Amino acid sequence: MARKRILLADDEEDIKTVVTMFLESQGYEVVTAYDGLDTLEKVRSEKPDLILLDIMMPVLDGYEVCKRLKEDEQTAHIPILILSAAAHAESVKRGLKAGAQDYIIKPFEPEKLHEKIEQVLAD
Amino acid sequence: MDKLEPENLIRLARHVSEILSSPTDLQKALEATVNLVGTVLDAEGCSIMLLDEQADVLTMAASSDIARDLWPTIKTRVGERFAGEVARSGRPLLVRKVRESDRLDEKRRRRYTSRSFICAPMKVKGRTMGVINVTNRKSGEPFTSEQMDLVVSLASLVALAIENSRLFVSSEALGRRLRDVLEGMGDGVIAIDTEGKILHHNDVALHYLGSESGQCVGRQLEQVIPERLRPVFNELQERTLAERGHIHQEVEWHGQGAAGGGAPLTLSTTPLYCDARGKLGGIVFVIHDMTLHHRLDELKRIDEAKNSFLAIISHELRTPLTSIKGATYLLRQRLRDQLSPENLELLKIVEQNSERLLQQIDTLLDVVNIENRTASLAIQNIPLSSLASRCVARVRPIAERKHLEIIEDYADDPGPIALDEEKVARAFGHLVDNAIKFTPRGGRVIVSTGRTNSELYMAVRDSGSGIDPAMRERIFQKFVQVEGPLTRQTGGCGLGLYVARALAELHGGRIETENLESGGCEFRLVFPPVDVIETYQRQGLEALESPKAVGSS
Fold this sequence. Notes:
A: alpha/beta; 5 helices; B: alpha+beta; five-stranded antiparallel β-sheet; 15 helices; disordered C terminus
């Protein structure tokens, strides 16, 4: 079975490093994006199986990225998990409304993130 | 004066009118009237009795021949004696010769000292207010019906005068009350007529205007207000007069405030109508000190800024913490078999303190959600005992360092109930944290769950010094911390109990505290019966459907 490819979109270098290391240790292939526009481009060029999406990113925020991907027929099928430090109930609501499969608040337990990824990929 | 000459009658009427026309001193008018009537009718006595409608009794108010100090003692019940009969029937009575009158039996005839007698009701608009009695002509002749008619006419005049006087007195009282109300107001009030002359004002108005003059009624408004304010007043005055409708315009300017010193003041105007048909009689200016409004607005702004600041802080602290926790996790995974006990201890310290930091961030976010009313519940079925033991597990390392014994007693656990696991864990976590904080080294903390009646509870009992009863309510307020020997060592920012109580209330629950006889105290997180919790959860979710805007997230 081919390795699943995950696009990790986050503007925080340290978070990208840590999460990439963790995901790779769990057997995934990881590509990263550093802002909203880069994310949209990488989705097209890399065709990931799943997107881990930060909210507070430069150029385009995660809500907008999520909305655009879900509006586009070519990308609407790709599951999106929001990974955000915006822990407010309103942010969670907004993220789910934009079409994300789930909203995970930072900091998160790595095992729980893994569980969630497996679950979403299985659907 | 057998025949009443026309000129005598006119003189009498004019005289009585004059006496009665000054309503300010009714008593004097009544006394003058009885003396005058007595003289004109050549009677031995004339008196006026006033009716107390509540008691149904006539009391003498004035008499030409009876000593003044006896007047209040002379009373006649309505329906009794001649005066009482007249008061009841409202019809005048003429008894030419008392001894021959068939109105009286022999016994009563003898009791009457008068020989001849007129009694006329004093009536206004069909209401009897009292009677006028005229007794015995000095000549010994009986009274005539002509004389009775005269007394009846005079009685109507007197009645009218009494009515006027009473209206005057009550309108005076009303006026006094209104003046008291005006003076008692915090707002400045000035009423002027259409020509700009001041009709009424209160002292507050003069204070706001910075005017030194005392009484300004009758003066032109222009003379009273400071020059720089004249354009403001004039413009509003003209607009109010021109538009005639209810204008409520507010103009803000800086003047002398209620507390002295400068203050933002607003001026509003209302037309003053002098009759029901809408004839404009003037304008009322109301001057209001806006200091408190402004201060309140300012406080609201500060509070909103604080909440949005807390939300930003929460976000900004979570981001680096995510890297720290993630990196620590990976380190532990990678070095699993290579860590010396000492290095493992170091790693544990990083992990535990990251966790602690996260809890503090969560507390800040709880405050934001509580104050913006955006807290929602994520419901799961969970046993209280597993929540409680989770909280205990978290504090165990700290407890061990303080050599505290933690006893867990879940023998009476009520089983799984529907709760927001994270929020209840945070609420109870604050109670457990406090118990650990305020129990001295070597002490004991007991954690338990259970049920009393239909209510469910999680409890934590410490062996600290208990809570000062005076502080019992205050400890639940924001940023309040108990002063005591342990305060400095224990730290914290005074948000734990505030958040814990709010989270409990979100579930329809509450927090109870009790000082124990054995020393220390017990905090209980009490939940209502399960069906009540569900109602609260529904309400909480409805509240979330229409949330307030949040500054930042």
